[in-house]
Amino acid sequence: METRNDLKGKRGLGRLVNACRWSLAGWRAAWQDEEAFRQIVLLAGLGLPLACWLGQGWAEKVLLALPLVICILVELLNSALENVVDRISLERHPLAKKAKDMGSAAQFTAQIFLACVWLSWLLGD
């Protein structure tokens, strides 16, 4: 017998419509509440057209764009993690600090990757 969480919502096209609506709400919330998200989106807004202009061929353009998109994705996940930790408790706790620090480390790693890809490309092989 299949058990299903009734809170999961609709199936089929209705589920897809709801997923799009919730995703847009997530983007809106991140834009409104997270300064780091806005900064990374603005960086990507400059970098993505630059990647398309500088890249020679499809693969090179995608490889220059990929770390920019990864930084956006990681920041969304980091912000979500921070919100969940804060929802549980605003009290200082070593595990809460550890979770938030790990999310920050993930974003820092993504930014190092971005810098390495772009610097190696700009400086040549």
Query: What is the helix content?
Result: over 70%
CATH architecture level-2 label of the largest domain: Orthogonal Bundle
CATH topology of the largest domain: Helix Hairpins
CATH class division of the largest domain? Mainly Alpha
Number of DSSP helical runs: 4
Poorly predicted runs are none
Shape: globular
Whole-number mean pLDDT? 92
Total count of strands: 0
Give a structural overview.
- This protein is an all-alpha fold and 125 residues long.
- The chain has two domains: 1-33, no CATH class; 35-123, Orthogonal Bundle (Helix Hairpins).
- It has helices at 12-33, 35-54, 58-88, 94-123.
- The chain is globular.
Task: Please supply descriptive tags for the structure shown above.
single chain; 125 residues; Helix Hairpins; 2 domains; globular
Question: Short summary of the structure?
Answer:
The protein has 125 residues and is mostly helical.
Layout of helices and strands:
Blueprint: H1 12-33, H2 35-54, H3 58-88, H4 94-123
Helix pairs in contact: 2-3, 3-4
